[in-house]
Model the fold of this input.
Amino acid sequence: MCSDWASLATKFNDDTASWRALDPKIPATQWTPEEKSINDSVAPIMSSNADEMERLGRKSDNSVLEDIAVLAAQYQRAYVTALPTYTEADNFLSEAGTYLFKSVDWACKAAA
Done:
């Protein structure tokens, strides 16, 4: 499971590089057309990533890891839902999901 999780993390980082370069303090009402396009294109990537996190967590046979993975997925889905009306406060949804996502990755590295 950990190697699959590491691959998922690498893919997510690669697929969201343009989005991660954006200033999270800028609300949706002030996005340029390019920023809007980047945010629009990241939503399905995040949704797919959330589905895969949940799938990996559920097949892990580790109830704690499963709970963390499902919670990370829920935060990521909440962020995607907030994107159309994004405000700076919505970034905390993304951050919470990211820290949970990375926690699993770090735990896997510690167990290796």
Notes: The first helix runs from residue 2 to 15. Residues 2-8+33-111 form one domain.
